[in-house]
Write a structure and sequence with these properties.
The protein has about 120 residues and is of the alpha/beta class. Helix content is about 15%, strand content about 35%.
């Protein structure tokens, strides 16, 4: 199962303080909107998202249809197909993609320890 590009999405208290800290670790701003309280940073192929006031817990994020540079892939497994496979495997969902739709959508599952895993397709 190919879930797409991977990043860690961090729920931060102070976006600017977090940006400054991760820049000291070699990350650089790759995208985002500071005025909307979010930034995406990269260090090589490692991607982290910083999100102030957007969600409660840190989460793992996968983006079907994207590579690690947020470039669209010619071929990928659609988020709805991934959802069907996980449902067939008995995974419970916190939020689901609209199975009758196409294009961008997402679903959210929790791992056994309650860590959120977001599969968020932008294409």
């Amino acid at each position: 199962m190919d879930l797409g590009a991977f990043s860690v999405s961090l729920s931060v208290r102070d976006l600017e303080a977090s940006r400054a800290f991760y820049e000291k670790l070699g990350f650089t701003v790759f995208g985002g909107e500071p005025a909307q309280n979010w930034l995406i940073l990269k260090n090589g192929n490692h991607v982290i998202g910083l999100f102030q006031g957007m969600f409660e817990k840190n989460m793992l994020t996968f983006n079907p249809g994207w590579d690690q540079n947020a470039a669209s892939l010619a071929s990928f497994t659609d988020v709805r197909e991934l959802q069907r496979e996980l449902k067939a495997a008995g995974v419970s969902f916190q939020a689901q993609a609209d199975e009758s739709g196409s294009g961008p959508d997402s679903f959210l599952v929790l791992d056994p320890d309650g860590n959120p895993v977001l599969v968020d397709q932008h294409v």
